[in-house]
Amino acid sequence: MTVIKRTTHNGFTLIELLVVIGVIAILTGILVPALGKARAMAKRTVCQSHLRSAGLAFRMYLDDNNQLMPPATRMPSAQTNSKPPIADFIRPFLKDTKALQCPGDDGHRRKGRTQRYYETEGSSYEYLQTLGGVRVGVGYLTEKVIFNNEKVHEREVQVLYDYTNFHGKLGRKGSVNYLYADGHVGDRAGE
After folding, report:
1. Phi/psi at 137 (nearest 5 deg)?
2. What 8-state DSSP symbol labels residue 133?
3. Residue 36: left (phi > 0), alpha (psi -120 to 50), or beta?
4. DSSP string, 17-76
5. Is 191 exposed, middle or buried (CB count within 10 Å of its CB: 0-12, 13-18, 19+)?
6. Whether pLDDT at 14 is above 80
7. Residues sharing a CB contact under 8 Å with residue 163, sequence separation 6 or more, in sequence order
8. Backbone phi, then psi, for 54, in 5-degree steps?
9. Which of 52, 101, 115, 136 has its CA 20 to 30 A from that of 108?
10. 143 close to 181: Cβ distance less than 8 angstroms
11. Alpha-carbon distance 13 to 3, whole Å?
């Protein structure tokens, strides 16, 4: 009687392992850019939410201050005038002071050093200081404000906006978020 010896493999061959590793590498190469884009979109969305909160704080500030826009400076660290930063005016009306910090404000190279605007300016958002002292119409969402001796609808007046392009290359849609006087948040194209 002849005995047949069966050989069983308890593992994978080298070629099988290399194929699996190659497939995983290809899938990773496809997914990593998509995850980066999703992370960037999430930061932009949180930034827009923060600007909406700042818009509500503005509304409360205006209600308490005879509908006059705050006389704040554009960029406190530049010390171009003695006006306080916008954060000093609206922070008391915010439940969370982190609402003035854009998650995209995670460090930008400027003059050879890393700068986080929230740390140096007290906010990630620049204020249009020429609005200081301007009276907002009684119908906050519908009335017109006078800006540079012109009547402009509030949906066109940028009140707060990212100090720089936190959300993409400058000039591209969505690279900078804006809070408009009527309370909506969008980009410069008015999305």
Report:
1. -60, 155
2. T
3. alpha
4. HHHHHHHHHHHHHHHHHHHHHHHHHHHHHHHHHHHHHHHHHHHHHHHHTTTBPP--BS-G
5. exposed
6. yes
7. 75, 105, 117, 121, 124, 125, 126
8. -65, -35
9. 52
10. no
11. 27
- Residues 145, 181 contacting (CB under 8 angstroms): yes
- The kind and range of the H/E element at 117 are helix 117-121
Mean local confidence (pLDDT), 54-72: 89
Whether pLDDT at 72 is above 50: yes
- H or E element that contains 16: helix 14-64
* Statement: residue 34 has pLDDT above 90: no
Nearest Cα residue to 57 out of 86, 85, 93: 93
* One-letter amino acid of 35: L
Distance of alpha carbon 112 from alpha carbon 42, whole angstroms: 28
Mode of pairing for the β-strands spanning 113-115 and 178-180: unpaired
Sheet holding 178-180, edge to edge: 125-127, 158-162, 178-180, 185-186
CA–CA gap between residue 167 and residue 176 (Å, rounded): 6
Tokens of 87: 């954060």
Segment 101-124 mean pLDDT: 80
| 117-174 pLDDT, tens digit each | 888 888 899 988 888 887 776 444 345 555 566 666 777 888 898 888 888 887 788 8
Please answer whether residues 174 and 186 qualify as being in contact, where contact means their C-beta atoms are separated by less than 8 angstroms: no
Q: Which residue in this structure is represented by tokens 């700042």?
A: 54
Q: What is the mean pLDDT of the chain?
A: 81
